[in-house]
Amino acid sequence: ADLLLLSTSEPHGLCYIETSELDGETNLKVRQALPETSIMGDKLLQISEFEGQIHCELPNNKLNQFEGRLHYNGNILPLDNGKTLLRGCVLRNTRWCYGVVIFAGKDTKLMMNSGKTKCKRTSLDHFLNILIMGIVVFLIAMCLICTTLCGIREWTIERHFTIHLNLDGSVIPNHMEQSSEQTSILSFLMFFSYLILLNTVVPISLYVSVEIIRFVHSMWINFDTEMYYEKGDTAAHARTTTLNEELGQVQYIFSDKTGTLTQNTMVFRKCSINGHSYGDVYDANGKVIDVTEV
Which distant-in-sequence residues (6+ apart) come within 8 Å of 290 by Cβ? Predict the structure, then answer.
């Protein structure tokens, strides 16, 4: 739940929190309770008898904005984002704190910012889906063609021999030739017969084979010695088996400048602006070549 901070274990009602789950920042942030409420400290009796009214904005997804006011002891006290503890925050360097719930459940800012989880599918999955749909259409077309040819044969040739065949009288009386209605019934039933006979055209085991290949590929990534980091004793770990084949299609890697990925050792080499390359020229040994115009 999102809380209005009332009191903390630190002097002046200060509270230190980490909001890495909200905005990705690991540096500690300071929150401070109102002086009128921070004097309650950890006195549970006073906190349980706390009476006040909070008038604030409607639930929204703005993490750095909060507006409201607290009616307490006949005073109107302004509230802002610096006096709230949002859901997902972690308490740091503070033993305890007390607060009153402002928003709960789906109305919290964390839940308002969490959209629907998208099902990630690779380009191979899309290709397989289109391929299977094409095969199903081909199967239905083949069944329709075979059914049509069967109906033509039944009407032109086979219907004259029904009086000589011991067929089920409920469908075709064995004492007369087939009528057009009976031929249509036979053709309709033959469609499902051809559907059963030709259903092996659809490769049902294809998805199972692809999943097995992905699983083996993930294990291969986990045991790849070329992706082992000796200093941190860390090996590569495939957290999902559905996106392995997408690694070979990565064309651009965007990295921030905070040192999260570069460890603050990123050195400018070269850049391209409007099709023109700017930067130093290096030889095979990695040394800068002094290029001067003549």
Answer: none
pLDDT at residue 55 tops 70: yes
CB atoms within 10 A of CB 7: 23
Q: Which residue has the tokens 């002097």?
A: 11
pTM of the model: 0.48
Q: Which of 168, 256, 283, 290 is catalytic?
A: 256
- Residue 200's φ and ψ, nearest 5 degrees, are -70, -10
Q: Are 40 and 96 in contact (CB under 8 A)?
A: no
**Domain locations in the chain?**
2-113, 123-203, 206-289
User: What pairing do the DSSP bridges indicate for beta strands 14-18 and 90-92?
Assistant: antiparallel
Concerning whether 256 is annotated as a catalytic residue, the answer is yes
To the nearest 10°, the Cα dihedral for 15, 18, 19, 20? 180
Q: Which residues are 16's β-sheet partners?
A: 30, 92
Percent of the chain scored above 70 by pLDDT?
A: 84
Whether 143 and 197 have beta carbons less than 8 Å apart is answered as: no
**Measured CA angle at 274 (ends 268, 280), to 5 deg:** 30
